[in-house]
Structures are given as structure tokens and as C-alpha cells.
Amino acid sequence: MNYRRDIDGLRAIAVLPVVLFHFGVSAIPGGFTGVDIFFVISGYLISGSLLDDLERGQFSIGRFYWRRARRILPALTFVIVLASIAAWFILLPTDLHEFSLSVIAASTFWSNIYFWKTTNYFSIDAALRPLLHTWSLSVEEQYYIFAPILVYLIYRYASKRWLTILLPIAIGSFAVAVMATTLAPTAGFYLLPTRIWELALGAMLMLKRPPALASRLAMELIGLAGFVLVAAGFLTISESDPFPGYNALLPCVGTALLIYAGTDRAGAEGSAPIATRVLRFAPLVWVGLISYSLYLVHWPINSFVHYLSLKAIGVPTIVAMTVASFALATFSWKYVEQPFRQKRAFTAPLPIFAFSATAIALLCAVGLTGALGNGFPQRFPDFSTERIRVGDWRNGVCFNEGETRIETWNLADCTRTQGFATNVLLWGDSFAAHYVPGLDANAQKVQANVIQYTYAGCPPDLSYFSYARPACTRFNERALSVIRDANVQAVILSGRWSDYQIRGFDGLQKTVDRLREMGVKVYVIGQSPEFVADVQKIAFFATREHATNTSWPMAMDPDINKRVLPFVKGADFIDPLAYLCDAAGCSYADAGTKQFLYFDYGHFSTAGAELAISKYWPSFAASNEVAKAKVQSAGHGPAEPPQLATGAGLRLPGG
């Protein structure tokens, strides 16, 4: 294969938006799609390398992995070692324990599976995981397991019918990716089956090259279309959009068009399309050359900076992180990557395989030590955690965690307040259940028999389906029977809406419509505050900063409730953020008693639940009339808040 400077330029186009997106530059909401550009490039180049070997009679699985090990492992090992050293001094015990497990996963190339099970890529605490970005390397390495074998078999036994074999695989993978955006979005984002089509697109472009176009204008238009599609991916896609389904076509097809436009048919630089000449621009080529190291180093820098602040970072910090990332990436490229890519005694197959095995074993040993040592709590003797009063969610009966049969739910056990004229169903996920501990203290305010019907990770949406929680659909459907059988007059829907916005809220509106058809009053409680980390960690860092109050910035989309509001027409909408937060942030603990209002990053403790219910829950009088809290009925303006008791000693900003 001939070296193509434009592909290095394309690598720069891929990595720069990824870095800026991760650093919080909102002008590029789809910067994460740069990873998809990398997948297409990898599919193209790896297939070309394999084809060269086959046509020269030099094909060997060992040779293939020798080249991959030289390219990938040295810089990866360097970055994991640096990150492990930093983690020892920075991460608190529970986080060092999790980091240690991710070291094992990253060094053995299954971190995409590990993070699929532990972290949503777009979750509020994702930035606190220093090796999260290695998921994409794991996808590629898993692809390398079968790619050389498949290319060999097609070349040797299928008469080079590349499209006959690869196109159905790509179409099938794309179909799975599209379905996964609604049925299993987290798995769809992380796992190989939904990404194969992106790698296969690059492979098909190399193995079955499209014919050259004689028209110069046509090639110019193809290059321009490639840039437009890639730019559209960066500027129009956001983390709230389904991905990588149809939306991934923008960066992937755009990349394929740019690669095709740059195919050197005429040879002379001046004859190349404008798009290709732009990609050959020297500064872009340089960034492309260091792009692998830049991708590796920028995320741990970002992660540790966020961990030390637990807040949104400002422009000066972003600039400093960018400079540091480029400096460290340049060092890694020159002194780690390049020596291993040159022909030297230690880059021969046997030394490389010995180095690879040793590096992986040592990294796994480091990870295992940190995991077995439970994060070595003795490193932070001044950090301690207290047992926060949570209350009884009646797990396994009224709060299903996916391990119990839905039929175990029963009305008698799950009626949490009793003795009133009105029956109210509290339906939702854990962000509905976390209100339950505050009911008893506010029973006379609520004036209703509140029935708890909750399921972990299962929003109150009749159209919701998840492969991770297939029973959720049946659980939600049963809610309609509960409403009828228990003579429920009002339903309160509550959930972690920030988790579900990627799927859209159309199903929520359909659920509200169905409930109104049944003749029940419907309330929807919006998203309550979420912080970037456990509140006890926040308190620890706040104490170190000598903070004078218990207010802390929330770490979620501040407009999430505005996004939910258009999909609850016909229901009364309650915005918790209007009560629990102000412009400076949200209180994680009571300023007077120092009681924590949450027991983790966003679920209410007993004290927090009591405060929340006293502040904004609807009250049900014997006449079934509702005393409005600070409620927004969809399509109407905010109602006036009632005068509510806030509880002795509990004070919040704006409360």
C-alpha cells in the first residue's frame, strides 16, 4: 500500500472533534462521531494490508498480529502505566478499585464489554473513569480476531467475491445497530456487532474499489459531499440522539467518500480534488500522525482534571488540557510509537510477542492488586463515609430489581400510606422509589394512600422495551390492571428522565394519554438533581476547598425538564429543580444539620425525600381536589406555589 497523506489528515479530522467534545466544547455536539471515522479508516487500511500480504504470498496470522502489536500495545501500555500512577495519588478507594478492574479489561481488550455493563458513555459520571475511551480499541481488537481469517477465506476459496460475503454482513450489522438504538442503546453503542458495518464499509472500499470517475467535477463533488456529511455529523448529532443507527451514516459515508475522492489516480498533487488537498495540509497530517497517542492521552487528562474538581471546567482549564494533551501525545508518538515501528532488533516478531505478553501480564497484575486491595483506603486516612439513612424501598416486593418475579408485587404490602380517601399510584424507576421514605413524615400533607409500583431502570412508559430488562414491558402493562383493581384516582409518574432522552419521550405522552382515557388524574415529576459523583465524595473535596456552603453544581442537562414538558400534555408537570436548585447549584446536604440529602449521586436519602415531598408533591384532599404545588401543566404557565413546610433545620438555596 502506498502512503496517503490525506488519510492522516482525515485522522486529524476525526480526533480533534473527539478531544474537543470530551473537553466540553459545546460547539461540536457530535464530536464523539470521530470514533466512527476511525473505524472506517481502520477497516480500509487493515484490509489493504491483508490484501497486500495475500497477493505477495506473505499472508500469516502471526505476521498480522505482530504488526498490530507493534502499532497498538507500546503506546497503550505507556498510557495505562501513567494513568495508574496518577490514579494512585488521586482516586478515592472505591474509584481506584473500579479503575483497577478497568485496567484489566483495557489491557486484555474487552473494556467495551466492561463499560457496557458498568457505565453509560454519556452518563454524568463517565468523565470520572480514566480508561473509558479504551472501549473503541477493544472493538477494533475484537474485529481483528476474525477479520484476517475472513479476508483469507474469501480470497482463497470464494474467488475474491468480496461484496457477496461482506455486504450482507455489513447490512445485517447496520440493521442490528438501528434496532439497538431503541431496544438496547448502551449495548448498541459499545459492542462489536453494531459496529462491524462501519469497519466493513472501509474494508469493502479497499477490497472492491469503485471505478474511477473520469469527470473531475464528479470527483470534486464527491469530496465536497464527504466533508459536508462528516461536518453534519459533528454539528447536528448530539448525545441525546439515537446512535450508532441511522445517524452514524453521516460520519461513515462521509469518510468513505473522502477516502474514495483521495484515491491517487492521476498521481500529480495538483490533479487531486480540493477535499484531498485540504486533507494533505501539513498541520492536519502532523495531527494525524500523532492521532493515536492523542486519543490515548487526552481522556485520562480530562478524567483526572474532572475528578479533582467535580465541577464543570472553564475555558482556561480546557486550553491547558489541550496543550498538555498535544505535548504528551507528541512525546508518546516520538519516543514510544516510532521506535517500535522502526526495524530494530527489539521489533522482530519474537521480542514483540514477548513484550506484548509481559506488558499484558504486568498490567493485569497491577489491576488485580488494586482490585484485591479494595482501592487501598489507607492512602486517604482523612476520608471516611457514614451510613446515610435511606429508608425502606421494600426491595424485591415494591421495588423490583430485575431479580424477582413481577407477580410478587401486591397491593397490601405496597400501600405505603393509609387511612385516606384517595388512592394514588407512584409508578416509575428508582427515581420514583426514592420518594417513598419521605411519605410517612408528610402523610398529612399528601392526604392520600400512596401505592408504590417501581422497577429499577424501568421508566413509566408503556412503549418502553429493553433487552437488559425484558420484564419491564410486562411490569408496565400490569400497572393498568393495578390502577383498575385498586380504584386509583391519580397516578404520579417519576423517572430518571436524563437516562431515557436518547430514546425520545413519545412513549411518555402515549402513556399519559392512556391514563387519561382511564379517567385518572396524571402528574409527572421531572428530573431531580444529579451530581457528578457520590455526595460524600463531593463533601470531602468541598471540605478540602474550604467551601462555606453545601451547594454544588448539578452534572446533567439543566434543560432536561424542559425537554420532557412537551411530552406530558394533559398531565400536571412538577419540576423539582425549581425547588431544590438555584443559579449556583443544588444543595447536597442540609446546611444546618449536615444531613446528606442524597445517598449517592442523585437518589434521595430519607432526609432528602422528606424535604422533596414537603416542597413540591401534590396534596390530595378528601374531596379529591388537588392543592397545586409549583406545577406546570403542559401547555400552561407555572402555577403559584403553595406555602409548604420545609422541615425543621432544612435549608436549601432558594428554598
UniProtKB/TrEMBL annotation:
Transmembrane regions listed in the UniProt entry: 12-28, 34-51, 72-91, 142-158, 165-184, 219-237, 243-261, 281-301, 313-336, 348-372
Coiled-coil residue windows: none
Limits of the SGNH domain: 410-613
Domain Acyltransferase: residue ranges: 6-330
* SUPFAM superfamilies the UniProt entry points to: SGNH hydrolase
Q: Per its UniProt record, what Pfam families does this chain match?
A: Acyl_transf_3, SGNH
Q: Which GO terms describe its molecular function?
A: acyltransferase activity
Question: Sorted alphabetically, which InterPro entries does this protein's record hold?
Answer: Acyl_transf_3_dom (IPR002656), Acyltransferase_3 (IPR050879), SGNH (IPR043968)
Organism's domain of life? Bacteria
Chain residue ranges for the region called Disordered: 634-655
Keywords associated with the record: Acyltransferase, Membrane, Transferase, Transmembrane, Transmembrane helix
PANTHER family reported in the protein's UniProt record = ACETYLTRANSFERASE, ACYL_TRANSF_3 DOMAIN-CONTAINING PROTEIN
- The protein depicted here goes by the name Acyltransferase
Q: Which organism is it from?
A: Mesorhizobium opportunistum
